[in-house]
Amino acid sequence: MCPIYICRSANIYIKSYINFYHFFSSLNFYILRKLSKMSNDAEIKNSDYYIDLLEKLITEERIIYYKYSDFKNVQQIKGNVFRATWKSADTFLALKSFNNNKKATQKIVNEINLYKKVDLHPNVLKFHGITKIETDVIHHIDNYSLVLEYADSGTLKTYLNNHFSELDWNDKFRLALQLASVVECLHEFDIIHCNLNANNILVHQKNIKLADFGLSKNIDKEFEESNDPSKLFAYVDPKFLNQEQNYELNEKSDVYSVGVLMWQISSGHQPFNNELADYDLAHEIMDGRRENDVKGTPTEYINLYRGKLYKLHLFFLGNLFKLINSFIQ
Length: 329
Known about the structure:
With 329 residues, this protein is an alpha+beta fold. It folds into two domains: 103 residues, Phosphorylase Kinase, domain 1 (2-Layer Sandwich), CATH 3.30.200; 175 residues, Transferase(Phosphotransferase) domain 1 (Transferase(Phosphotransferase), domain 1), CATH 1.10.510.10. It has twelve helices and ten strands. The chain has a six-stranded mixed β-sheet, covered by helices on one side. β3 and β4 form a beta hairpin. Keywords: ATP-binding, Kinase, Nucleotide-binding, Transferase. GO terms for molecular function: ATP binding; protein serine/threonine kinase activity. This is Kinase-like domain-containing protein.
């Protein structure tokens, strides 16, 4: 079975060192590889195939449909994501909305397909169903929204900023274990994320929640919403940063990103946070430079992300999962 890529490398090059920042702020290597098995992509694109499919899934009750009028207290969280309560319940749900067009409907169907594959994993944000916007409360959006579990602590970056001083090493090992476990789950279903970073990993009730598999979030928006968009390249497989290589992101690239995130969990801040994100830094990363180990970090933890994960080809997530679990126990 061929892997499902949630991204595909584009033809990216650097025209000059001066344009380097612009290069990273306009990366377009997280684009959808179509999941359709139909041979004529143009025919699908110009048809109502995905719209009809989505309507069929709802009619046959293979997807739970929620009446939008049953949602209360709708509030925007960020971009196209909102939170709301349902009926008389006090618990928040997340509504991930899409524009009303055929391309967006295709993204909805594809994202539902991926959620259905991995939804049983405890560290995947739960997919509850779908709703259709019937009001002007959510401006410029007048079609379907995914109904998802709401992550009460926001992104991993936000969680570490707000709660890092409260975390002991058992907590950090546990977060690393959950991250490794959920990425391993993706790989077992031949799903390659390619865009793991602290801005799109969520935390709910002190637990990692993976969502936004890249199907409906434009990478340009993510760079725009980041305080320092160029810093996101610190999570990317260094082999991909080398424009001279025709390198496609793969499972090992996800493993590298997990290693960077493990370091961030140990430190509480983004990699190379106090350095200028320029060509020199990227070149040093390509040549093997990594962040310095945080004082007090257990040797076992350092060995996991530095000695193993950063070498990519020498380690697999299944082994990482077992090792971290053994340290916690």
